Amino acid sequence: MRRLLAVAALCALTGCSKPAPPTAVGPPTPTPAAPSADSFAANTHVVCASVNGAVKEGTARFATDLGAMVGHLAGGNQPEADKSRRSAQGRLTELAAKVRSAGTTAANPVLVTAVGTVASRYDALAADPAFLAGVRTASDVPAANQRVAAATDPLGGVCV
Known about the structure:
Blueprint: H1 2-14, H2 37-74, H3 78-102, H4 109-127, H5 129-133, H6 141-150
Helix pairs in contact: 2-3, 2-6, 3-4
């Protein structure tokens, strides 16, 4: 009898005489996680690698056209030099578009701004008729290449 009273008292204290509350059906709703610093840094790294790849490829193509232009000028072939000049300008415009495209997934607002600035600089070089008109000989090529390379300066503080 004592056992029965003890069980009854224990049930009264723990609530075993009350019906169990209904349990939720289905999986719990996940709570959205805030972006971590690691994912932010990883995104910046991926975008920088993509932008740098686009710059490397695009500047190589530009340099090829620039070299062809100078070669045609040295050989006195003005029509082919003009064709190479237009192609080099087109490469800069294409490079600007590829840089913009590579930066579209950037989460870092500083990187977004830097990518936009770099792309605008390439567009400006492509639109500047004096830029490539000033390249007449092989000795003019390093200065032109330096201007193209300098267009990426805004990435220096973000893409390290």
